[in-house]
Every structure is written in C-alpha cells, then in structure tokens.
Amino acid sequence: MNAKKNNTSVLLKPAAIGACLIATSALLSACSSTSPKRERSSSLNEIDPAMQIARQNRAEAREQYALATELYNDGEFDEALEAYRRALELDDQLYAAWNNMGQLLMDQKNYADAVSAFQIAASIEPTDPRPLYNTGLAYQRVGWAADAYVSYEKALLRDEYYLPAMRGLARSAEMLGKGDRQLLETIKQAQLRETDDQWRDYFRAQYSRVESLIDNR
C-alpha cells in the first residue's frame, strides 16, 4: 500500500534571526563627575573578549544554518550538509542543525551517523518529538522494526498526538505482528487526526488487525 511508504523525515526550518546582538552596558548617573565613578563606568562598559567571541560564533552559526536550509530547499544536498557541519563547528548546541544534518546523512544511507545526529538533537531539545521520530524512521528503513517501534513510542511520549510518529508506530507494529490496547488507542486517535485518505484507510485496516489480535488472546 502506498501509504506505508510515505514516511518522510522531518526537516526543521530556521526561525527568524535577530538583526543584532545586544551589547551589555550600564547606564550611570550623568550628574556625578567624580573620578572613581568615571572609572567604574569605564569598567562596566567593557565586554569580556571570550563572551564577545561566543556571541559572534553563535551569530555565524545561525547564518550557516539558514544558508544550509536554503541549499537543501534548492536541492544542493552536499553543499547543505557541509553548511550544517560548519554551523555545528561554531555552535554545537544548535539542535535543529543536528536534526537536519541527520536527515541528509540518512538520505545518503549513512544510517549510523544519521542516528547519532538525531540522538544528539533529541538530547539537546528534550521536548521536540521530531528527532526521535527521525531516529525511528532510520531504524525502520534498515528493517529494525523493534528499534523503530521504541523510538516512535519515545516520540509520542513528547507529543502524544504527533501524527508522523503515530504512522510509524502503526507501521512498525504491523511489521512485528504485534498489537495491544495502548496501540489500539493510538490508532484510534490517529484516525481522528488523519487527513490523508490512504493513511486513513491504513489506520482503519490496522485498527481491525489489532482488535482481532486482542480478541483472539
């Protein structure tokens, strides 16, 4: 069935980048002219060089991230991959860059590095279900249905109504020939939210399959 093959990894799009970084400074009273206060004012206006470099790196990282996403959208996948890598060299906490780099690696069938990138993204941002969904998809593509099932379950713990993970969970359960009442409830919720006709039909068929398994126990 076509619906079973339509799982796609999730690319995270860049948010709007601020126009400039805010320099830290202290506003001192203008009415005093004593020398000690002028010295304190000069000291407070100084910026730590290490902090300045860190800010510059973060700004450059986001520029590289935005460039990488543009390249990806233009079909320049090798160039996009390098731009994501440059972004992460500048700021290794940019979780969306890890996720998107993982997707490109997965498209190259480099599943080991893709999964590592997804797992780093998931650890940096503990509320986003998408890196865990992408991990499940990578496992599913190499035929590791049990590992995929666990990853989709973890994604749904972060967002119980995340539809791509619901699809993945149902597909992995079918590959494993398993089903229980919890899966039945997930499929029921997916049916309520699904808008694609093929996937709606697929969920209907899986609901009947799992219901039959439960009744025959």
What does this structure look like?
This protein is mainly alpha-helical. Among the domains are: 50-126, Alpha Horseshoe (Serine Threonine Protein Phosphatase 5, Tetratricopeptide repeat), CATH 1.25.40.10; 148-217. 68% of the residues lie in helices and 0% in strands. The protein has helices at residues 35-44, 49-73, 77-90, 95-107, 111-124, 130-141, 145-158, 163-176, 181-193, 197-215. Mean pLDDT is 85; it is low at 16-36.
What's a quick, concise take on this entry?
The protein has 217 residues and is mainly alpha-helical. The protein has helices spanning 35-44, 49-73, 77-90, 95-107, 111-124, 130-141, 145-158, 163-176, 181-193, 197-215.
Question: What are the main properties of this structure?
Answer:
217 residues; mainly alpha; Serine Threonine Protein Phosphatase 5, Tetratricopeptide repeat; 10 helices
Give the N-terminus to C-terminus distance in angstroms: 28 Å
Counting helices, strands and paired strands, the structural category is: mainly alpha
CATH architecture term of the domain at 50-126? Alpha Horseshoe
Let me know the number of strands.
0
CATH-defined superfamily of the domain at 50-126: Tetratricopeptide repeat domain
Helix content: 55-70%
Which fold name is given in CATH as the topology of the domain at 50-126?
Serine Threonine Protein Phosphatase 5, Tetratricopeptide repeat
* Overall outline: elongated
The Cα radius of gyration reads 24 Å
For the sheet with most strands, the description reads: none
Rounded average pLDDT: 85
How do the helices and strands follow one another from N- to C-terminus? Answer: HHHHHHHHHH
Strand content: under 5%
Count of alpha/pi helices: 10
CATH class placement of the domain at 50-126: Mainly Alpha
Uncertain spans: 16-36
